[in-house]
């Protein structure tokens, strides 16, 4: 497991002493104890049903949820699924006085989508796929085409960069 530590300066104008919680290092730099932010846009996490989760995918269909849940649980991840919030709708302008009020057409309900997360906040789908960390139930390594459901059987004997 890779652990990333961020470093910062101690309190300005104060040198670190033996009583400080962080170990004394060169240039009086001490590590922060906890970081609660994504490394980048590809490594997001948020609270799903009150549990801190790494996001596997957002706004996915029920069919995709079933596929991801089966695959991730096979790879020993605890999966959390929540309904995605509905898209924001622009408010309608108020009717102008003296004009004919016609009934407002109701927008069709968008298809229900879901957010899929895993409780292991170190999980990153891109790293898991290209690092060959995930396996299918039939014993193959998960490829990008299998993850995207373009293939029903993972063809892991051919590297992704050799496929034409």
Task: Tell me about this structure.
There is one protein chain. This protein has 164 residues and is of the alpha+beta class. Helix content is 14%, strand content 18%. The protein has 3 helices and 6 strands. It has a 4-stranded antiparallel β-sheet with strand order 3-4-6-5, covered by helices on one side. Strand 3 and strand 4 form a beta hairpin. The longest helix is centred in the middle third of the chain and has 13 residues. The radius of gyration is 24 Å and the shape is elongated.
Characterize this entry briefly.
This protein is α+β, with helices and mostly antiparallel strands and about 160 residues long. It has helices at about 60-75, 125-130, 145, and strands at about 5-10, 30, 45-50, 50-60, 80-85, 115-120.
SSE blueprint:
Elements: E1 7-9, E2 29-31, E3 45-48, E4 51-60, H1 62-74, E5 79-83, E6 114-118, H2 125-130, H3 144-147
